[in-house]
Design brief:
The protein is mainly beta and 384 residues long. 3% of the residues lie in helices and 43% in strands. It is built from 2 helices and 29 strands. 42% of the residues are buried.
Length: 384
């Protein structure tokens, strides 16, 4: 833990991207993995103007932009093996893949949902063979997990229809989809119904595929895997709660809940947290970290144990408004953050510090989250 704290103590703002524009928020960040022969990693910034902007991570220079059209983008993922392939999902009911080596080109593949689908979450398996997207609940219909096979044999059309759906496990918006980091058959989903479901998609039916259901008692805003062999799952909620479960205890007499904090904001000493941004599991340290923020733009790094949450570092004088996303590079200890001030910032431990801070570009947030208030209906979770 000492090495992490030492690295965080040296962390400072070292670079910033070219401005997006003063009416556009950075809503999410995805970073390609390092590969031999690739000069630098690529950063994909999800923007509130329904576009994805690509940047060179080393220089923070703008590379190109993809326009999604009419739909709101709910996420982007680089393929795990072909790092030149970028996937994105949209509320227009499609998932698309883009070849980032072809500037301005059309999507390589389009994965079409069913007519009523509006996607608000998605992910791709670690094998790159399966894409799954979660839908918004529309009127009296259920909320779905929609699956596609990414493979396209020569001569097959670029537009692909779903393999099928899971339709009975959530009764409200599916806000999060997270495939297991090493097991391509295991996927977790989170919803505004308060439930976190874990599936084994090798099984023939949805009932058989459902391994476990954990109840956060709130609306799920972030989902991640943790622990040795990634046998733990944790979530953040839209009312700033935190839940952490050990799935290895499912078939034992031990309780699977490691931690459950209804509201993180009053629990952390040493900083003032207005909201939670996300989480990250550090494999070498076998430690779970969270990022929280203030509406003034401060970023707070937190260490999570089953019995307590501890403040480690505050990053200030970078953002001037709400921070929406972060990405921690474990190889060099650097941190990327994006926010409502139209800024994409790079924080590094060993490079020259930038002294300037841009002025606030935004009034109060006008971006509407595509989720509804938590459904307080009672549930019967399959947990101990």
């Amino acid at each position: 833990m000492g090495t992490i704290e030492e690295m965080l103590s040296r962390l400072h703002m070292s670079n910033r991207s070219a401005m997006v524009d003063d009416m556009t928020y950075v809503l999410g960040i995805e970073v390609s993995k390092s590969t031999a022969g690739q000069s630098s990693q690529v950063v994909a910034a999800l923007c509130s103007n329904k576009s994805i902007r690509l940047y060179n991570r080393e220089t923070m220079n703008f590379l190109q932009e993809y326009k999604e059209g009419t739909g709101v983008i709910c996420g982007a993922r680089f393929a795990h093996k072909n790092h030149n392939l970028l996937y994105s999902a949209s509320s227009d009911g499609t998932v698309k893949s883009w070849d980032i080596r072809a500037p301005g080109a059309s999507a390589v593949q389009i994965f079409k949902g069913y007519p009523s689908n509006a996607f608000i979450s998605f992910d791709i398996s670690c094998s790159d063979l399966v894409v799954c997207a979660g839908t918004e609940k529309i009127e009296e219909e259920d909320a779905f997990l929609v699956f596609w096979d990414t493979r396209s044999p020569e001569g097959m059309p670029a537009n692909k229809d779903p393999l099928g759906v899971y339709s009975e496990s959530h009764n409200d918006d599916v806000t999060q989809i997270r495939f297991h980091p090493t097991n391509p058959s295991k996927v977790a989903s989170g919803s505004t119904d308060g439930l976190v479901n874990i599936f084994d998609i090798k099984k023939d039916t949805e009932d058989d595929a459902l391994i476990a259901t954990c109840n956060s008692d709130s609306s799920v805003s972030f989902l991640g895997w943790a622990g040795e062999d990634h046998n733990q799952i944790y979530c953040l909620t839209h009312d700033e709660g935190f839940c952490w479960w050990d799935l290895a205890q499912i078939d034992t007499e031990d309780a699977i809940t490691l931690s459950k904090i209804t509201d993180m904001r009053p629990q952390v000493q040493g900083c003032a947290i207005d909201y939670l941004i996300g989480g990250m599991y550090h494999e070498k340290e076998n430690s779970l970290f969270l990022a929280g923020g203030s509406h003034a733009g401060d970023i707070h790094i937190l260490s999570c144990k089953s019995d307590k949450v501890r403040h480690l570092k505050t990053l200030s004088c970078g953002h001037s408004s709400t921070v929406r996303s972060f990405h921690w590079n474990l190889e060099d200890g650097s941190l990327l953050t994006g926010g409502e001030d139209a800024q994409l910032l790079l924080w590094s431990p060993d490079t020259k510090e930038i002294q300037t801070k841009n002025k606030t570009l935004k009034m109060a947030s006008t971006v509407q989250q595509r989720v509804r208030v938590h459904n307080t209906k009672s549930y019967s979770p399959k947990q101990k």
